[in-house]
Amino acid sequence: MTATTSPVLSVNRITAPTSAAGERFRAARRQTMQLCAPLTPEDMMVQSCAEASPAKWHLAHTTWFFESFVLREFLPGYRVFHADFAWLFNSYYESFSAFPEKRLRASFSRPGLDEILRYREHVDAAMERLFEQGPEVEALRRIELGANHEEQHQELLLTDILHAFFTNPLKPKYREQGNKGTRERENREQATPSSKDHSLGTPAGSKGAREQENGEQGSEGTREPLTQLGFAEFEGGLREAGHAGGGFCFDNEMPRHRVWLEPYALADRLVTCGEYAEFMADGGYQKPEFWLSAGWDAVKHNGWRAPLYWSGDEGERNVFTLRGELPLKDLAATPVSQVSFYEADAYARWAGLRLPTEFEWETAVEGQAVEGNLLDSGEFMPVPSADLVQDENGAKHYGDCWVWTSSAYLGYPGFHPLDGTLGEYNGKFMSGRMVLRGGSCVTPVRHIRASYRNFFAPETRWQFSGIRLAK
Ligand SMILES: [Fe+2]
């Protein structure tokens, strides 16, 4: 089934004087609306799992952020759109107001979508008045934070819609197919018949030790040969991690500090669906020796037998994506996604390797251009590594899937959260979560950087989260 377009959501009414903050704000607001264009109003009401929120709620909550933390404080005479929205669309800021339980967001049939869109227009218009007046420095900081916050919710909106469509018996498609990546791949395949040979995925002359992990077909009848897995080696030693220089970062990326790294090696691509299928065929989900204790408990308690969106039996599996349900046999060289930290760790243990620490990942990619299959590529799902740009080591560290690291999400030495209510943004979650790095196929390219820290509970599976091996 092809999703229909909601005409009411294809309109962007923001026009205003130019300024860096204004352009940043408008671009974020515009992109949210564009991502909603394939959705119906009914799609936008669905909250299909505990982690997810309805798209309509994302539209309102991102607006609430600007109203609550920018306009109410920095635009003289600002009148709130609706007094109840201040608490209704608060997500988790305890010091701001009470807020509804997250699981109740699907019950917000009122306010209706039209009213939410008028709320967005009301706040956008007020923001333009603020830009005309010239926001003070603290307001500009909050606007940049708000734009980054909205980009985070763009990613969440897509991951939540993917789950919503997965639970729909009709298995709707958010997109029919990817953008230029698909066209370029098809062109390459037509021009070069041998380009199907993914053993060529490691460029000649690349640095680092190379090891062939899997050169043959996946165990479930997958057609595409798997890419040769290479490793880039790093000396280790005393290094620095954390945000450096100018530009925006979240408080949890600071302060920059010294870290000690033993010599290590990082895989030059993510683990593929074909490789993960081999883990499954080898009894990966039946053998407790591969699993952390809490991970094995999760396997038994949740009945895990495959990544979240895999269905069917061995030999005839499908994978649900934003482009609909696809045969696993066509995704052998595609990075495996929607796995938990526990599954990533168990796979690494089965492979005789391990997950990287967050500092190993960061020091490996620092200074590299942010390139990869991110939201801007228009693919909307992971794609084989050989299909996209690679660095001089043959590695592509950004995009496709967030990489689970073995690092617990903690404050850096000397960490200080933002002052006031916004101090709740990141700091209060520094318990029971693991760090993920690198962004995914639904992360806006301008949003991600080497020092960026995502964090989720280790059992989390609904994100585009995958596996990069280390040793
Ligand atoms: Fe939020």
Entry keywords:
471 residues; alpha+beta; four-stranded mixed β-sheet; three-stranded antiparallel β-sheet; 13 strands; disordered N terminus; binds fe (ii) ion
What does this structure look like?
The chain has 471 residues and is of the alpha+beta class. The protein has helices spanning 20-36, 55-74, 85-88, 113-133, 137-167, 180-191, 273-281, 293-302, 341-350, 358-365; strands at 231-234, 237-241, 257-261, 264-267, 310-311, 318-321, 324-327, 372-373, 398-399, 402-408, 434-437, 454-456, 465-466. The strands form five sheets. It has a four-stranded mixed β-sheet. A three-stranded antiparallel β-sheet has the order 5-6-7, with no helix packed on it. Helix 2 packs parallel to helix 4 (113-133) and helix 2 runs antiparallel to helix 5 (137-167). The radius of gyration is 22 Å and the shape is globular. The chain binds fe (ii) ion. Fe (ii) ion (FE2) binds at residues 61, 91, 149, 153.
Beta-strand portion reads 5-15%
**Secondary-structure element pattern, one letter each:** HHHHHHEEEEHHEEEHHEEEEEE
Mean pLDDT level: 87
Structural shape: globular
Q: Give a short account of the largest sheet.
A: 4 strands, mixed
